[in-house]
Amino acid sequence: MPSHFNHHLSEASYFWAQTSAMQAFVTAASVLVIAFLFRVHQLLKAVDQLPAPPGKKWKLPPGPRGLPYLGNLLLYSKGEKGAHEIAKYGEMVTTHLGSKLWVVLNSNRLAHELYAKHGKVTNGRPPMPIVNDLLSQGRRSVMLPIDGWAERRRVMHQLLSGTAMTKYAEYQADESAVLLANYLRKPQEWYAHNARYANSVIYRITFGEKPKEGGNLMTDVTKAQFLFLLNAPPFNFWDCFPGLAELPKFLQWWRGTFERAGKFTHDAYFEYYSPIKRNILEGKAPQSFARDVLLGQAKYQGSDTDKMFLTMQLVEAGSDTTRLAINIAILAAVRWPEKFLKARADLDRVCGADAARLPDFGDEESLPYINAFAKEILRWRRIFVWTPEHTLTENLEFEGYYFPRGTSFVINHASISENPDYFEDPLSFKPERWLDGNETDLAAGSWQFGGGRRLCVGYKLAQKSIFINLSRLFYCFNFEEREPFDDKSIQHFTMGEPFPINVKGRGEKWTALIERAA
Ligand code: HEM
């Protein structure tokens, strides 16, 4: 055989060998990519795309058409506007947040049926790889599924009810007198005094003593809390695709940020809690929630870090909501002066129009309008648009529908609060609508505290705090707009002034009354 032919042959076989190696590589890579995409596709399936039990079919209420994979995320990104759009589809509406199935409840009837009556199977929470697993290190009870939640709930409930409430009322009255004095001294920092009140009360309940003045450890705890709230459902994009947490970690490029946020939270809590824990262990601390949890009286089985989170979560949950509620009450006083003056007239009737005495807890029954005012602020400018998800722990047949395990039911506060069938002239601020004999029960007729077995464990404390501060502030101070502002977009997540107002004392007699009380 001529040598040049041999040469061509070897070149050709080299070429073919190269080409088939390349082809094999491309084929293998394609198979891997397709397998990977298939796996991602599987992981992105919502619970209603998984098979129903043999012979059955899922049946869900109607809802807005969504985009592939993203579902109705864009609607949710519109906040309250989106909530009102969703409500147009009916009393119960199927939506998807990425691969999460959210069935939105737009009526009191359904909220009651599903949260309370079917509470046994709607107590769950869906997986939240970011806000629960990473940001909260799997330890904030409010995000935990039943496993892990139930015991924490028992401990919190036991320590926040019964005779303890009388002691807590003393703290609340005491701290609200400090609040008034602070308003008198620095009226321009009114919002900071509200935050200080809320934090001091929950601090005393949790740790049994007054917080040290001037410490700035709360700053990082507050940042940790904002991180949490800004990533709670439906806000964190990655939590809308919980299946992605099953991908190998190196492919989850977004994890690092949230792992660091989780560590920041842990460290902020640790700095705050450690000196208090040391005092407790050295036998120097008074009776408190933290001491009962740490020394075993509460019979809580968690690790030391679990105990720290349980305790700090209380400080966190109790501080911010109360601060916001008092801010909103002042907003209502500025926007609806005739309602404020009506509340003032009631206070004058009970406590005297000449500053005879400060309102107190003994006046609760005589001041239904103040409690009605509190209920109306939570309706008018609600703190939460959605209740945290109440997730089905088993498949459920309900009113002709068949919901898969893992369906989350959420209450649409915006649509319920502005439904004219429930609230005549809903855009107006009318405390009178709540004068029904249930004024002192803040959760009656409102879903702002959630519901069923997950109902806010601190709502009675919240009611007392709101009552005492509204009544005393309205009795002693006047509030007016400093410059025009839009009362629908107030800055909740700022420790600065949320809206521009001036606060002025009511007069010398009231000043003297505050000075005597503080
Ligand atoms: C205006 C005030 C408040 C509002 C609107 C509010 C609202 C809520 C809501 C909506 C939930 C979840 C309920 C659910 O999943 O159905 C909750 C849970 C919780 N709240 Fe509140 N809350 C307030 C005040 C407080 C206070 C003062 C405390 C402090 C003791 C507190 C402690 C908690 C805790 C610890 C949880 C989690 C309970 C659990 O995991 O079972 N809250 N709150």
From TrEMBL:
<keyword id="KW-0408">Iron</keyword>
<feature type="binding site" description="axial binding residue">
    <location>
        <position position="456"/>
    </location>
    <ligand>
        <name>heme</name>
    </ligand>
</feature>
<dbReference type="Pfam" id="PF00067">
    <property type="entry name" value="p450"/>
</dbReference>
<keyword id="KW-1133">Transmembrane helix</keyword>
<keyword id="KW-0472">Membrane</keyword>
<dbReference type="GO" id="GO:0005506">
    <property type="term" value="F:iron ion binding"/>
</dbReference>
<feature type="transmembrane region" description="Helical">
    <location>
        <begin position="20"/>
        <end position="38"/>
    </location>
</feature>
<dbReference type="GO" id="GO:0016705">
    <property type="term" value="F:oxidoreductase activity, acting on paired donors, with incorporation or reduction of molecular oxygen"/>
</dbReference>
<protein>
    <recommendedName>
        <fullName>Cytochrome P450</fullName>
    </recommendedName>
</protein>
<comment type="similarity">
    <text>Belongs to the cytochrome P450 family.</text>
</comment>
<dbReference type="InterPro" id="IPR017972">
    <property type="entry name" value="Cyt_P450_CS"/>
</dbReference>
<dbReference type="GO" id="GO:0020037">
    <property type="term" value="F:heme binding"/>
</dbReference>
<keyword id="KW-0812">Transmembrane</keyword>
<dbReference type="InterPro" id="IPR002401">
    <property type="entry name" value="Cyt_P450_E_grp-I"/>
</dbReference>
<keyword id="KW-0349">Heme</keyword>
<keyword id="KW-0560">Oxidoreductase</keyword>
<keyword id="KW-0479">Metal-binding</keyword>
<dbReference type="InterPro" id="IPR036396">
    <property type="entry name" value="Cyt_P450_sf"/>
</dbReference>
<dbReference type="InterPro" id="IPR050364">
    <property type="entry name" value="Cytochrome_P450_fung"/>
</dbReference>
<dbReference type="GO" id="GO:0004497">
    <property type="term" value="F:monooxygenase activity"/>
</dbReference>
<keyword id="KW-0503">Monooxygenase</keyword>
<dbReference type="InterPro" id="IPR001128">
    <property type="entry name" value="Cyt_P450"/>
</dbReference>
